[in-house]
Structures are given as C-alpha cells and as structure tokens.
Write a structure and sequence with these properties.
This protein is an alpha+beta fold. Helices cover 36% and strands 27% of the residues. It has 3 domains: 73 residues, Orthogonal Bundle (Arc Repressor Mutant, subunit A); 138 residues, Endonuclease, Chain A (2-Layer Sandwich), CATH 3.30.870; 95 residues, SH3 type barrels, CATH 2.30.30. The model has no long low-confidence stretch (mean pLDDT 89).
C-alpha cells in the first residue's frame, strides 16, 4: 500500500488530508519535537501543537509535555488499530438502531384528511422532539397541543412558535408554552418540524375550520425538514410580531443545537450579560484548531427583535480569542470561519 492509499484510508476516520500528512511524517520521525515535525511536514509549529492534541485524543500519539521542549511520540500501530477497531465496533449498536428507525421513517409519507387527526399528529410529533421544534398554528387551537409543547420545553427543547389569526396586542396566555412566540393576524399555513427530520404541513383553513376539504401531509424526510425550517424562519417569522421570549438559561450551559446557542447568546446580550465561550467543531475554509476559547463580541441573528442578520436564516456569533477573531456558524456553515458541533457559555468575569 502506498502513502496515498494509506492516507485515503486514514481520512475515512475523520482526519483531514493535512492532519494525515503530519501524522505520517511523525511516524517516519519517531518521537520528535514540534519544530522537527513542522520542518519535515512543511507546516507551522503552532499547527503541530494543535494537531497533536487532536491525534492524542484519537489515540494516535502521546504528547510528552512534562519535558522542555515538548515531544510527540507516535503510539505503536497495533495500539492505534485496536483503538480504531474498538471505536468502529462501539458504533455498531447505535448505527443499527438508527438504520432501523430511518428505514421506517423514510417509508412514512402520510396524507391526512381530518382536522382532528392533524392535531393528534402534531401532538405526537412534538412529544418525540429531542432538540428543536418550529410550529405555526392558529391561536384558537393552541390549547390542543399546549401540554405537549410545555413538556418539550421542560425537556430543554428549543420551541419557536408562530400563532396566527390574532392581533399582537391581544391578551394571550403564552408564558412557558414556547421559547419564542410571535403573533400574526393573518391566517398562515400550519407548519411543524421536529429536529429538522419530521414534520407536518397543512393549509391554514384545515386546522382553523372543521369543515375544510383540504389535506395535510406528514413527512419523515431528513432532506425536506431543513427546507421547511428555512421557509418558516425566512418567510413567516419576520412577518410576525414578537410576543414572548424566554429568560436566559442559567450559566454555565452547553448547547448542541446551534440555533439554541445563538438564541441564548442574544438573550444574554439583551440582559446585559457578557459571555465567554468554548466552541468545539472545525474550521470551514482552512485547517486549524478544533476548539476555540474566547469572548462573544458580536451576534448576528433574526430570532429576536431587532434582527441584524444579513440574510433571513443567518444565525451566527463572533468570538474573540487570543489567536484572533472568528465567526461561528452551525452544522453546514459555509459563510462563517468555524462550524460548531457544541457550544458552552459561561458568564464573563
């Protein structure tokens, strides 16, 4: 097997081409100083330190930082292979479980003709939410799914709700039913997404009136969910008036849903709370650190008023670190500098 074939196989375990090249260089050198590895691999010494931490966490190398200068030693190949094999084997039960669920969900594409069944399905889907719910619903039927929405909030689910058919100044009981609530006097389509994977779409009149001949669709398509979420926040959310916002979460707090993280940052900014942050993920446009630590210095979002994002679905924040300033986006980020998997906020000292 030549170096290119070996590198291709290592990249399948989530290592970038540049990280693999650095690791292969270290294998040839044996235990070496960061400066030696940097010279041999044609990268910066700072980059070697960053990569060595990632490789150490993955079980590829051992970093001896108890001596000066620090040295990095590749672990024996058999130990690396055993570690990778254990990681792959540990995924098998979870992959099998999710494969079964996905196969079942992808076959589900249900047409509903009954208003009662639409509301029942909304309650069922909301009850399964683990991370995020977006929902638009006529206010007159909100009480039909209110208990399920409150239970989702208690589980820590981010709930963004638009209630339609009422005026913003009406006396509405919205406290605690969602994380964010907006009100629109016009009747709008009933749209639900749960964790951006499953959901429901219905003409507004089908839920608002019992004698409608319209039909609703329940979907379980992972590619369709984000499209509906984008339409919800891009087309309908800006048209509605802010009616309720939750309080900031107690700190420290960790978020794996990036929109939830941006909301909390915006709520803290509104409350005058400065935030320090640790972000775990990856650089978008270049190789670099997989973890950033710094101060939140700017937020771009359209979840709270006043919106300041440059396009409707932009949600991001900017972190100032000792190494520089980085814009942070969620999974699939391509405009920002860094794509976040997890965000931890603490109150700035």
């Amino acid at each position: 097997m030549d170096d290119r074939e070996l590198a291709d196989l290592l990249e399948q375990f989530g290592l970038s081409e540049k990280v693999v090249d650095t690791y292969l260089t270290l294998l040839e050198l044996g235990e070496a100083k960061a400066s030696q590895i940097a010279d041999a691999a044609g990268v910066s010494k700072r980059y070697v330190y960053s990569v060595s931490k990632e490789l150490e966490s993955r079980g590829f190398v051992e970093v001896n930082d108890h001596v000066v200068p620090t040295t990095i030693r590749p672990l024996p190949p058999m130990e690396v292979i055993e570690s990778l094999s254990e990681s792959v084997e540990s995924m098998r039960p979870a992959l099998e479980e999710r494969y079964t669920a996905t196969a079942r969900d992808q076959e589900r594409f249900e047409v509903i003709k009954s208003r009662v069944t639409v509301l029942k399905r909304i309650g069922e889907l909301v009850g399964r939410a683990e991370s995020e719910i977006t929902l638009s619903l006529p206010y007159d039927v909100l009480d039909e799914v209110e208990d399920e929405l409150r239970a989702a909030r208690e589980r820590g689910v981010l709930v963004s709700l638009v209630v339609s058919g009422v005026e913003p100044h009406d006396d509405l009981a919205l406290d605690g039913v969602a994380s964010l609530v907006r009100v629109w006097h016009e009747l709008m389509p009933t749209m639900l997404t749960v964790d951006s994977r499953t959901g429901l779409i219905s003409p507004g009149e089908m839920v608002a009136r019992s004698n409608s001949e319209s039909q609703a669709i329940v979907f379980a398509q992972p590619h369709l969910g984000p499209v509906i979420v984008g339409s919800f926040f891009g087309n309908y959310w800006p048209m509605a008036a802010e009616a309720y916002t939750t309080d900031p979460d107690p700190l420290p707090a960790t978020y794996h849903n990036f929109r939830h993280a941006v909301l909390q940052a915006a709520l803290c900014e509104r409350a005058g709370i400065d935030l320090d942050v640790t972000v775990v993920g990856r650089m978008v446009h270049t190789d670099g650190p997989t973890e950033l630590h710094g101060r939140v210095v700017d937020i771009r979002q359209g979840l709270l008023e006043p919106a300041n994002n440059s396009f409707p679905v932009e949600n991001a924040f900017v972190v100032e670190t000792d190494e520089g300033t980085y814009s942070i986006g969620g999974q699939g980020a391509f405009v920002e500098d860094f794509e976040a998997d997890a965000v931890e906020f603490t109150a700035a000292e």
